[in-house]
Amino acid sequence: MDIQNFKVIEKFARNHADSRSSLESWYSITRKAAWQHFADIRKTLNSADIYKCCTIFDIGGNKYRLIAYIDYETRTVSIVEILTHADYDKDKWKRHC
Length: 97
Known about the structure:
The protein is globular and about 30 Å long. Strands 1-5-4-3-2 form a five-stranded mixed sheet. The protein contains four helices and five strands; from the N terminus they run βαααββββα. The protein has one domain: 2-Layer Sandwich (YaeB-like fold), CATH 3.30.2310. The chain is α+β, with helices and mostly antiparallel strands. Helix content is 35%, strand content 30%.
C-alpha cells in the first residue's frame, strides 16, 4: 500500500515518543500489505475498525488511534490523524469521515 501523509506519523511520534515503535510497526505492515477490502485488513491487523469511510487502527496496545482513509482501488492509505485514546473518545475525528 502507498501511505500518504507520513509527516503525521513523524509529528505524532515526536510528541509521543512511546508510540514510535508501534507506529513504525504499523507502517511496515501497511506498506507491505495488498489489501483489497476491509476483511483483508482484519486478517492482518485484527483490532482495526471501520467508521463510515475511515479505518481506525489501534496503536500501542490501544493507547493511540490512527485514523485513515483507504482507497483499495489505488492501494492508497491516507492518514487523517493520530490521536491519544482520550482525544479519540471525544469523537471530534468523526467529522473527517
